[in-house]
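[Structure tokenization] protein backbone as discrete codes

[Encoding] learned vocabulary of local backbone shapes

[Begin record] amino acids and matching fold tokens:

___
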Amino acid sequence: MQSYDVAIVGAGASGLAAGIAAGRAGARVILLERMPRAGKKILATGNGRCNLGNRHAQGHPYHNKEFAAPALKTFGEWGCEAFFDSLGLFVHADGEGRLYPRSNMASSVLDALRFGAARVGCELRCDCSVTSIEPAREGFLINKSIAARRVIIAAGGCAAPTHGSDGSGFALLRGLGHGIVEPRPALVQIKCDSALLPMLKGIRVQARVKIERDGKTLRRAEGEILFTGDGLSGIAAMEVSRDTAPGTIAVLDLLPEWSVYKLSDMLYEWHKARPEYTPAQQLAGLLPKRVAEAVLKDADDIATASKRFVLPVTGTRGFGHAQVTAGGADVRAFDPMTMESRVVPGLFACGEALDVDGGCGGFNLHWAWASGVLAGASAASE
């Protein structure tokens, strides 16, 4: 029987951060990873560049922001940069506070984490699926063969299953008595049902988008929208995707610079000055031609149709295309100051295993490091 101070289920972003923190605190640590190698999902982030954090994370409107706040505050405003600096990785910020490795290569981030974990003595065991965690007299028994005083669930969510996140951590938490908020894809392309989409495919616009159900706005964002053959992509669309479902609608404001009243006045004045222009010609200087044509189909009022372009939502492209999971372990059952379970003492969780998620811009990885470091340090100090 092998015994450890801390066993970490999952050697992805939050798991590696937890392992480094626990190892630095002097704990004997084992990382159990079901994939052939650690941190595979990290390599796919930021189109291979790895947007690894954001200087504005503490003010970001995370889902369950109140729960996330202590970990983010403990990590500190410059915590992400300091953490990676301690691992020998140079980090730089762009004009919006997004953090990237100086090499602009995600592999540099993973190497820094792997080497950092090895330096503090963490044992990494890949191709090791955790199928059981049982409370024991001295802590926990994992797979009936590994004993640990403390266990950290850092197995991620369900997003990008080919990179290791298959939802197995939720099953382990549920088996230990934790409630799971139904996981669903987030930061993913939205699927819509509209005959107009084929004519719009490939066009990008700067717009506001909101998701509505029965006249109530569920989520909104502003930025780039990319029309696809069956829906919407682009950062703004992905930002609102966590609240999409059949029965909701995506409402686009294609001309957010002006109110509907200002736009109506402008179009009226243009029509008076150029009465020979068709409605499509009036919109030519405002919208891409095919977007203008789509807006004008069945439109009674050009201004209103431009400010409220509606597409019925059928769902999303699913976990296989999602960047992150919305949902996860109910945070009410965890102490936000330590990431320890209130249900099972000695059990911790971090990262995407918990019902915390943020928008595009490095916020989800920032949460992974912050919560992982807090969980690792807390587990080692118990």
